[in-house]
C-alpha cells in the first residue's frame, strides 16, 4: 500500500513538473519571445558570433536609445544610438559607421544573451 502511494506521488510530481515546463515554453512564444543566433562581429565585445540571444517582437513605444534592436531585411542587430521619433540611427559596437532606419523597419529588441536557453524560456514565460 505504501509503495503504491509513493509511485502515485512520484508520477504526480513528474506530470506536474512537465506541465509547468510546457506552460513556460508555451507562454515564452505567446509573449513574442524568440531565440536568435548572433552572426558576425559588428557588436563585439557585447555580442559574439554564435551566441544565443533572446529577442522580443514586442517593441516598446518609448525612446530606444542604447537598446540593441533587430532591423532591416537582413536582420541586422545593432545598438540604437539616436531616436528621433520615426527615424532611428544605429551603430554596431565594433563599427566605425552608423546606419539609419525607420521605426517601421524594426523587427525585434534584444532581451538578453542566453547562457541556458531551456531555463531562460521557462523563466521568461512565467514573468
Description:
The structure is a single chain. Helices cover 31% and strands 32% of the residues. The protein has two helices and seven strands; from the N terminus they run H-E-E-E-E-E-E-E-H. The chain is an alpha+beta fold. The mean pLDDT is 93. The termini are far apart. It has a single domain (2-126), classed as Umud Fragment, subunit A (Ribbon), CATH 2.10.109. Strands 1-2-7-3-4-5-6 form a seven-stranded antiparallel sheet.
Could you give a quick summary of the protein structure above?
This protein is 31% helix and 32% strand. It is an alpha+beta fold.
Tags for this model:
127 residues; alpha+beta; Umud Fragment, subunit A
Question: How are the elements arranged and paired?
Answer:
Elements: H1 2-30, E1 33-37, E2 52-56, E3 68-71, E4 76-84, E5 87-91, E6 99-102, E7 106-114, H2 117-126
Antiparallel strand pairs: 1-2, 2-7, 3-4, 3-7, 4-5, 5-6
Helix pairs in contact: 1-2
Q: In total, how many domains does the architecture comprise? A: 1
List how many beta strands DSSP finds.
7
Strand content: 25-35%
Helix content: 25-40%
Instruction: Output the CATH homologous superfamily.
Output: Umud Fragment, subunit A
- Class based on secondary structure composition and strand pairing: alpha+beta
Which outline best applies? elongated
Q: What gyration radius follows from the Cα positions, in whole Å?
A: 20 Å
CATH topology (fold) name = Umud Fragment, subunit A
The CATH architecture assignment turns out to be Ribbon
- DSSP summary: helix tally: 2
CATH top level label: Mainly Beta
Amino acid at each position: 500500500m505504501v509503495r503504491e502511494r509513493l509511485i502515485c506521488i512520484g508520477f504526480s510530481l513528474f506530470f506536474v513538473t512537465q506541465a509547468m515546463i510546457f506552460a513556460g515554453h508555451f507562454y515564452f512564444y505567446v509573449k513574442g519571445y524568440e531565440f536568435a543566433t548572433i552572426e558576425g562581429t559588428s557588436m563585439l565585445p557585447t555580442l559574439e558570433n554564435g551566441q544565443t540571444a533572446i529577442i522580443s517582437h514586442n517593441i516598446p513605444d518609448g525612446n530606444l536609445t542604447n537598446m540593441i534592436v533587430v532591423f532591416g531585411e537582413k536582420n541586422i542587430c545593432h545598438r540604437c544610438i539616436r531616436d528621433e521619433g520615426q527615424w532611428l540611427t544605429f551603430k554596431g559596437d565594433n563599427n566605425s559607421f552608423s546606419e539609419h532606419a525607420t521605426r517601421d523597419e524594426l523587427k525585434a529588441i534584444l532581451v538578453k544573451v542566453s547562457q541556458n536557453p531551456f531555463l531562460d524560456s521557462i523563466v521568461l514565460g512565467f514573468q
